[in-house]
Amino acid sequence: MKVYISADMEGITGLVDAEDVQPPGRDYERGRVMMTEDVNAAIRGAYAAGATAVLVNDAHGPMRNLLPDLLDPRAVLIKGRPKPMGMIEGLTSSYDAVLCVGFHARAGILGVLSHSFMGHEIEDIWLDDQVTGEIGLFEATAASYGVPLVLLTGDDTACAEATAWNGAIHTVPVKFAKDRFAAELVPVAEARAAISAGAAEALRSLPTVAAGPDPRTLSVRWQSASVASHLTAIPGVTRRDDRTVTVTDDMLQLYRLFNLFLRVATAVTSNPPYC
């Protein structure tokens, strides 16, 4: 059984603030250790369930967060950016399951460090008119590969978003949101044990994948009308209004295009996330 792990940082055990997850934050280096150990917990669970190979993609921010010397040596790590498929780089139809570790709720939800990809810059995302964030786009893209997303860890709002999107996803809440930068924390040892147990349970009974129809339509509302204006230079991208762009294509191409959107938006704006 081949298992793919995408590791974000905002939903990692114990982390609640930009200082925890962004370099050069005062607690960022400690956050890297916490992130690596949450991923190790998922790797342990995967192997307990019979995994024969595990690939981990560092999917947060600079994508250079996980510490290779502390990572379980049974796993292979993808580190750095840019990557054409971003948070889902390296996933192919040869994998049997996806685990999402350390994920967060979408923009507009009162969850810990909630946003959609770019801090305040993205206000809303719709896939076929269904509002979504990183979790929904990730699950839909994995399903297009024929691979089920079976586990998600993060705060309680991220877990609720995942199960609302697809009720077959197992979730492990490692903290409970009190506000955007505050949470009631599950004790570290308890959280890591739950991640391992959750991963093993999710992998022992894999669900049937239900991929959405192709083509599909992706719409993104930006804070800046300038971003939307620049994106219309990409063939197939149209503006629904001054700040909202829309494009229709197969799901895999949509996800790749969306990663191009992010690079254009980064070049056009200078808004840091979370502020």
UniProtKB/TrEMBL annotation:
Keywords annotated in UniProt: Metal-binding, Zinc
Active site positions, chain numbering: 115
One function term, GO molecular function aspect: metal ion binding
InterPro entries membership: DppA_N, Peptidase_M55, Peptidase_M55_sf
Presence of the UniProt keyword Ion transport in the record: no
Sequence positions that bind Zn(2+) 1: 8, 10
Species: Kribbella albertanoniae
Protein name as catalogued: Peptidase M55
Metal-binding as UniProt keyword: yes
Superkingdom of origin: Bacteria
Residues reported in the UniProt entry to bind Zn(2+) 2: 8, 60, 104, 134
Stretches that traverse the bilayer: none
